[in-house]
Write a structure and sequence with these properties.
The complex is a heterodimer of chains A (309) and B (1208). Chain A is α/β, with parallel strands linked by helices. In chain A, 33% of the residues lie in helices and 29% in strands. Chain A has helices at 42-50, 70-78, 95-106, 114-124, 140-152, 170-183, 196-202, 220-226, 238-247, 282-291; strands spanning 2-11, 17-27, 30-35, 57-62, 65-66, 80-83, 108-109, 158-162, 188-193, 205-210, 213-218, 231-236, 249-256, 259-265, 276-277, 307-308. Chain A has a 6-stranded mixed beta sheet, sandwiched between helices. The relative contact order of chain A is 0.15. In chain B, strands 6-5-9-3-2-13-16-15 form an 8-stranded mixed beta sheet, with no helix packed on it. In chain B, helix 21 (426-436) packs across helix 23, helix 31 packs across helix 32 and helix 34 packs across helix 35 (1047-1060). The longest helix of chain B has 33 residues, at 110-142. The radius of gyration of chain B is 35 Å and the shape is globular. The chains are: A alpha/beta (309), B alpha+beta (1208). At the A-B interface, strand 1, helix 2, helix 3, strand 7 and helix 4 of A face strand 1, helix 16, helix 20 and helix 26 of B.
């Protein structure tokens, strides 16, 4: 189990930035999503969980081992698969050689040797044909897939993937999620993303971070359930849109076929005319959590700052 | 560029100037600038002119010449490097930060971009040059250094500003532009160092007098104008021939037009390079601009199917059955190192550096200067040792560049998260990175080896031997390299800024070189082993100070281990929290963190501490220094120039143990008071390495008074030691020589080593020396100026310069191991093979001697007529020529100066622990690097010359011992050189003699300092330039005198000198005695007196120049050459002018057996100082050139200008 206790990270400066504020979470085996807008603190949290960034306070333990202990941290790296948000490769190497090098450092090998394993892994991420091409010739998506390959290699107890699907085409995205889902058995996989749909697709549970604070901890189903009967949808004239925004909690407004299609969150009272109650989506839940101060969703959430699921 | 582009460029410049990226580099640069200005105010870089005596005229530190020289040195060594880093890294930094595309997209044109970037760096260059000027003015004029009071002139700001503008700035601009161009084109942060490193290498290792003296004049001219720093221009135009301190102090530099044009060209090239870099500066170098089909691949495999169309069959990971086992530390190191290797080999930088290094190494190898400005024959050993500083420098520089780059690479490539997120140990990462840089060291060594092979092929005499290379470039260099790589890692752990890491590394290396140069290093701290520490001898391989070298290397390895551990502790893969880090600033947390580093420091501290203790007790250690000072202080007032008795006979029984470096000596002197006055006492100095000494006076035990190391002997009965009275003084003691660990060097003139022994009666290495040693215990900076003698001093009775006026009989028995041969003066009476396997050689002087020596080794012998050479079997190459030289010397010197009285003349080789030769009676000793390993071309025959010079000392130094006074040593060295010149002329031929006199002239002109120069009659060896005057000018003067009065007449006079002042005379001769004696043999006394007044009692130096030379056709075959020859130097001289056609001597390497017909017509002209003389030479052939002094009969300045090609 990955346990986060009262984790705080402050970047000093004028003014200091409170990147993470008193976060507490516990994650068990399976896929766990971490949602949040840009700058919410997701990558900071990921980096701390990967053991590469020291928190200002708080504690992280993986199966009881405290990561602040250097020896534990070294063991932690043996059981870690990490794909950071911002990464690169040595551009003069081929994909095969780069992956081989990283596997060498991790001590990962296969029954037919490391070279064969590298080929197999490259095939899994659909890079077999480009194995011998220099990395400088790789497209963004290809690099991303190579990053995924190294993160999944070995037998990681904890897999941390930060915005893994950036640059991937829809097909590759689905392939990747299938791999993640397969890998999730007996492992903790933490998926950080700002794409709500990704969480909806693969994560049985997820948390939402905003401005360094944990604002939601739930499952997609619970999130949707908690809004049942409270989401309304209708078409609004452009001239009325501002009025609607002022009077109601608009979760989404999209221009569809030249008309403004608006979704509202309404806990009490009546919706505007022509608005119908519709099934809530996870995106509704996400946007509501982004806009309300204390609108916590799900069950078992500790109202103070975090919770257990 | 239009207005918009200019505005864009200025905007870019403005932001670049404000950029914090280079701030740390600028801070280090500024600090270095101020520090160097302070160091320069102490005279660290000064023009070699003026008088070295107290109160004499000094060259000013503040003159424009001095400032130009200082600025050029700083520009080469410091500014060039820092400016190259600053300019070269600007574009690669933007590339790594991936802002190039955004900048390009903003509408910024590449031309504006590069102009702005470069402009910003030029701004900082100007700031630094300004700071340099202000700092120098501050330290020279506002807070001046008292010790340089005489070397300071008035404040003239232009003296500081003009050299910066005309000399330094254009060169630096070019250097920086080159770095900028390379950085912008390649985006490679290492290649930017090519240009500054090439410049430093050129000045540190390439531009030597030895080389420039031997290249054609037009190449010298290219170097003069083409040197970016302007140093060669300054040196060749103004400094090489000394013009006197008055000139340098008062004259502003005249920046001649060709030089200014060359500076302008540098500026233009610099601007061109910046503009040329625009086309690629903003492009991502990773983008392939050209599609190339690899040769070994077929087209169909190159055109790949888009990956999107191929989908993997399997989607699962479980069927891969991956296994994980944490790799060992070693495996991690290998993985990291292997990846780095690939990167290093992939880039072009290493190969480019390799080519430059190979080139410099080759030139270095073929131009290795030896003693007497000869060229040393290249062997693997001597080249490896001589190139050690070069290889160390290059290796460290490349390791610095590649090391900092390697440490940075993972971060700049953003792979760091993958690597640090894996279980790789940080120390493995550091070691792997450092080890990979070994490839840089390998490239340096391989390139230098290539240089060696080229040199060996050119000389065509030897093959490269692997052992010396393995020993020096391997075992000695490897710890240095590990230390440096670890230091680079540590530097990187202290600063995340690559430029700052580079600057710190560079400063540390510069400091190391400076401390070595200043002599502050020793075995305990000399990690680089630069200095006098790596000396190769084919005969004695690191036998001298071997313990010190071995422990120094072990200490360096331990230091490398400590630095690496420290770096590992400092480096942290965990990005630390600033707030937590602040709270951890307490002793406990500090101790916990740095405990491994402290533990790792223990072996280094223990070994260095032990070495330090050994040094303290050694001959240059503080204990010895204190004892020597006590010796001096206690005795100088009482025993300075205290009269000593002489020795009439010596009987020694010397047992040598070369393996232990020790000896046991039992000996006896027959001592006599040879003076007119009685003596109450006499002092004796015994070496500090001698132990268990016992003394016997006339067969009775005796204990001399010990006055702080000076032993005072008085007659046991208390009576005076009357004139003519003799007594036996016997002694017995043990010794080890050289005893103890020296401070830093392995050079020694005398030694007992497992492979060879050299001991003499000059020093107290084995014998007690009569008298007080005035130099022992006296600090070098307190050495007094030479004594001023009255002009008639020579008329008094003058003591002998050495040997105590002795003319002694010697019986010397030397016991050595069975495989040794021992030589001494006189004849070998017998050799006894002893029961313990040793051999005892009994030597006896067949004629009395004044000095003697003992030399032993494992030799082969070559015998000639009355002469023999004992040499190492590997060094037989020049032995035939040397044997010829010995035979000729014995024959002709005997005929010219008086018969050689001893039975045989020997020459023995000793290990090259020092480069010298000494001519003891019958037993000459040569270092292996003199003669035996001299590059001996058939036309110059240097081996013959050196042998002839040393053999001449049998007459000039042994049959006649000069007096201790002014001009005394002229009778030794000048006459030995004169003898060698005429012997060369007689035996080898005119061409070789001309080559030798040309070489001596060059040596003299190069080393003379007008203000410091004294006439030959005043030379006492106290001034820096006395040596070249004694050897080169002196030899020349006697050569000219022989041409003036006739060689036979001069030689008769010289022979008379020996007859009148034989060794052991109560009065020893000085130069004035010679002048008087020789005058009697001069056919034209007036011409003789005039010559002596100019050349011996005066210091004239003609400087000849052609004026208005014209070739006119008079008739069908008749030609006339007219013109003027001006003497802009001093002295009234007669000089020959000749017109010539064809080659006088057959060209070197000419295939044809016949040379073209040589025709000449000549005329003698007399030219007074500052005047010119007309000449007109008619010939019946078409003259091709006109030459002054074609036969090398006049010592002059301007030999380069002596030939002028003629055309109608």
């Amino acid at each position: 189990m990955l346990k986060i206790e009262k984790l705080t990270k402050i970047y000093p400066g004028e003014p200091p930035v409170n990147a993470l504020s008193d976060i507490s979470l516990e994650m068990t085996e399976g896929l766990f999503g971490l949602l949040g807008p840009n700058g919410a603190g997701k990558s900071t949290l990921m980096k701390i969980l990967a053991g590469l960034l020291e928190p200002t306070s708080g504690r992280v333990t993986l199966d009881g081992a405290d990561l602040s202990n250097p020896q534990n941290r070294l063991r932690h790296f043996e059981r870690l698969g990490y794909l950071p948000q911002d990464f690169g490769f040595h551009s003069h190497l081929t994909g095969e050689r780069m992956l081989g090098f990283l596997l060498e450092l991790k001590g990962v090998t296969g029954p037919k040797g490391r070279k064969a394993l590298v080929s197999e892994l490259l095939e899994r991420v659909n890079l077999a044909d480009s194995a011998n091409r220099k990395l400088r010739e790789y497209s963004g998506g290809m690099r991303q897939r190579l990053g995924i390959a190294q993160a999944l290699a070995g037998d990681p107890r904890l897999v941390i993937v930060d915005e893994p699907t950036a640059g991937l085409d829809p097909e590759e995205r689905l392939r990747f999620y299938r791999l993640l889902a397969e890998l999730a058995v007996g492992r903790i996989i933490l998926l950080s993303t700002h794409i709500v749909e990704d969480v909806a697709t693969v994560c049985p549970k997820f948390a939402v971070i905003r401005k360094g604070k944990l604002v939601a901890l739930t499952t997609p189903r619970d999130a949707r359930e908690s809004l049942k009967g409270q989401i309304f949808e209708g078409v609004v004239e452009q001239s009325n849109l501002d009025t609607i925004r002022e009077e109601y909690f608009v979760t989404q407004a999209m221009v569809y076929d030249g008309a403004n299609k608006v979704r509202l969150f309404l806990e009490k009272g009546s919706p505007p005319a022509d608005f119908e109650c519709v099934p809530p989506t996870l995106e509704d839940a996400y946007f509501i959590s982004m806009k309300t101060e204390n609108h916590l969703m799900g069950t078992g959430l500790n109202k103070a700052s975090g919770g257990v699921l | 560029m239009n207005l918009k582009s200019i505005r864009q460029a200025l905007t870019v410049a403005k932001y670049e100037i404000r950029s914090p990226q280079a701030r740390s580099l600028l801070i280090v640069w500024a600090l270095m600038t101020i520090l160097l200005a302070w160091a320069m105010s102490f005279g660290a870089v000064q023009i070699s002119s003026g008088s070295s005596g107290v109160g004499g005229i000094k060259s000013h530190l503040t003159s424009e010449f001095a400032q130009a020289l200082q600025s050029a040195v700083v520009a080469i060594m410091i500014d060039g490097f820092f400016f190259a880093v600053l300019t070269g890294m600007t574009v690669p930094r933007d590339f790594e930060a991936r802002v190039l595309d955004i900048e390009r997209a903003s509408g910024l044109s590449p031309r504006s971009y590069v102009s702005g970037k470069f402009l910003a760096t030029v701004f900082w260059l100007l700031v630094m040059l300004g700071l340099q000027i202000l700092s120098r003015i501050f330290f020279n004029h506002l807070v001046p250094n008292a010790s340089m009071q005489e070397s300071r002139g008035p404040l003239i700001p232009l003296n500081y500003i003009r050299p910066m503008i005309f000399m330094v700035f254009p060169g630096l601009l070019f250097n920086g532009a080159m770095a900028f161009f390379l950085g912008a084109r390649t985006k490679n942060s290492v290649i930017v160092f090519l240009s500054p490193v090439a410049l430093i290498m050129a000045y540190s290792f390439l531009f030597s007098e030895t080389l420039l003296n031997r290249v054609p004049a037009n190449i010298r001219e290219v170097v003069r104008l083409g040197d970016p720093s302007g140093t060669e221009w300054l040196s060749q135009t103004y400094l090489r021939d000394d013009r006197g301190a008055e000139f340098y102090n008062s004259t502003p530099i005249h920046y001649e037009l060709p030089f200014l044009m060359s500076r302008f060209a540098f500026v233009l090239i610099a601007l061109g390079l910046v503009q040329a870099s625009a086309s690629r500066a903003m492009l991502d170098s990773s983008v392939k601009t050209k599609f190339r089909i690899p040769r070994n691949r077929k087209l169909k495999t190159v055109i790949e199917t888009p990956h999107e169309t191929i989908r993997a069959k399997s989607m699962t990971l479980s069927d891969l059955h991956m296994q994980v086992r944490r790799p060992s530390w070693i495996k991690n190191v290998i993985s990291i190192a292997r990846l780095e290797f690939r990167h290093l080999l992939h880039g072009p930088g290493l190969w480019l550096f390799g080519i430059i290094i190979a080139f410099v190494a080759t030139i270095n190898a073929v131009m290795q200067p030896g003693p007497l400005d000869t060229i040393i024959l290249v062997t693997a050993g001597n080249f490896a040792a001589r190139s050690f500083p070069f290889v160390t420098f290059c290796t460290c520089m490349l390791a610095l560049f590649y090391g900092t780059d390697a440490m940075e690479r993972d971060r700049s490539a953003r792979v760091e998260s993958f690597i640090f997120g894996s279980p790789v140990r940080l120390s493995a990462w550091l070691v792997g990175k450092s080890l990979a840089c070994a490839v840089a060291g390998f490239v340096v060594v391989a390139s230098t080896f290539l240089g060696l092979c080229t040199a060996l092929a050119w000389q065509g005499q030897l093959w490269p031997q692997p052992w010396p290379l393995i020993c020096i470039w391997g075992m000695l260099l490897f710890p240095t390299f590990l230390f440096w790589s670890s230091f680079v890692a540590l530097t990187r752990s202290f600063t995340p800024n690559r430029s700052a890491a580079l600057a710190l590394g560079f400063v540390f290396m510069a400091l190391t070189f400076l401390l070595n140069f200043k002599g502050y290093t020793n075995w305990a701290n000399n990690w680089s082993l630069i200095g006098q520490t790596v000396v190769w001898s084919d005969i004695s391989q690191f036998e001298m100070q071997r313990t010190a070298i071995v422990w120094n290397r072990i200490a360096t390895l331990c230091a490398a281990f400590f630095l690496l551990t420290f770096a590992s502790v400092r480096f942290n893969r965990l990005e630390q929290d600033t707030i937590q880090a602040r709270s951890r600033r307490n002793f406990n947390s500090f101790a916990r963190r740095y405990a491994p580093a402290l533990l790792a420091a223990i072996p280094m501290c223990c070994i260095s501490g032990w070495l330090y203790m050994q040094l303290r007790k050694g001959p240059d250690g503080s204990v010895s220094r204190k004892l020597n000072k006590d010796y001096w202080k206690r005795n100088v007032a009482t025993f300075y120039e205290f009269p000593s008795p002489t020795i009439d006979a010596v009987d020694l029984d010397l047992k040598l143990d070369p393996a232990q470096g020790s000896f046991h000596l039992k000996g006896k002197f027959l001592v006599r008071n040879h003076r007119d006055k009685p003596m109450t006492e006499f002092p004796v100095t015994l070496g500090r390495h001698i132990t268990n000494s016992t003394w016997i006076w006339n067969e009775k035990g005796y204990k001399p008074e010990d006055r702080a190391g000076l032993l005072i002997f008085k007659k046991p009965d208390g009576s005076k030691f009357m004139p003519g009275e003799s007594f036996d003084l016997a002694f017995e003691y043990d010794g080890k020589y050289p005893g103890g660990m020296s401070k830093n060097g392995v050079r020694s003139m005398e030694f007992i080593l497992p492979s060879g022994v050299v001991l003499t009666s000059f020093s107290n290495s084995m014998l007690p020396i009569f008298g007080f040693n005035t130099g022992l215990g006296l600090d070098a900076d307190m050495a007094p100026d030479g004594r001023e003698y009255p002009s008639d001093y020579y008329k008094e009775k003058v003591d002998a310069a050495y040997g105590g006026g002795s003319k002694m009989k010697t019986r010397i028995a030397i016991t050595v191991p069975g495989d040794f041969v021992a030589n001494s003066v006189g004849v070998l009476e017998k050799v006894v093979n002893q029961m313990d396997g040793t051999r005892k050689f009994f030597w006896k002087s067949d004629q009395p001697v004044s000095i003697f020596n003992v030399v032993a080794g494992k030799w082969s012998v070559a015998k000639g007529e009355g002469v023999s050479i004992y040499y190492d079997p590997r060094h037989g190459l020049n032995v035939p020529d040397m044997l010829k030289g010995l035979e000729a010397s014995r024959k002709w010197y005997g005929e010219w100066f008086g018969a050689f009285p001893w039975k045989e003349l020997k020459l023995s080789e000793f290990p090259g622990m020092s480069d010298y030769a000494q001519g003891f009676p019958t037993n000459i000793t040569f270092s292996e690097s003199i003669g035996f390993l001299t590059l001996n071309k058939s036309d110059s025959n240097v081996a013959f010359y050196i042998t002839a010079h040393e053999a001449a000392h049998q007459w000039w130094g042994n049959l006649m011992v000069p007096g201790a006074g002014p001009g005394g040593n002229i009778l030794n060295e000048s006459l030995a050189n004169y003898s060698a010149i005429i012997l060369m002329d007689k035996v080898i031929g005119e061409e070789a003699r001309m080559g030798l006199t040309k070489q001596l002239e060059f040596d003299y002109v190069r080393n003379r300092q007008g203000d410091d120069e004294r006439p030959l009659v005043k030379i006492d060896g106290r001034r820096a330039t006395d040596q070249s005057i004694t050897y080169s000018r002196g030899g020349w003067v006697f050569w000219m005198l022989s041409n003036l009065m006739g060689r036979d007449q001069l030689n008769k006079g010289l022979a008379e000198l020996i007859q009148k002042f034989p060794a052991g005379s109560p009065d020893s001769p000085l130069l004035e005695d010679l002048i008087e004696i020789v005058r009697a043999h001069a056919p034209d006394k007036s011409a003789y007196d005039q010559f002596i007044n100019q050349w011996v009692k005066g210091s004239v130096m003609p400087d000849l120049q052609w004026l208005d030379v014209k070739l006119t056709k008079l008739g069908e075959k008749d030609y006339q050459v007219t013109g003027k020859l001006k003497n802009s130097g001093t002295g009234t001289v007669m000089v020959a002018i000749a017109t010539t056609k064809g080659e006088r001597f057959k060209k070197k390497n000419s295939v044809s057996e016949t040379k073209s017909e040589y025709q000449t017509a000549s005329q003698m002209v007399k030219i007074e100082a500052g005047q010119s003389s007309d000449f007109s030479i008619q010939s019946s052939f078409t003259p091709e050139k006109v030459v002054f002094d074609p036969d090398f009969q006049l010592l002059l300045r301007g030999r380069d200008r002596s030939e002028r090609k003629l055309s109608q």
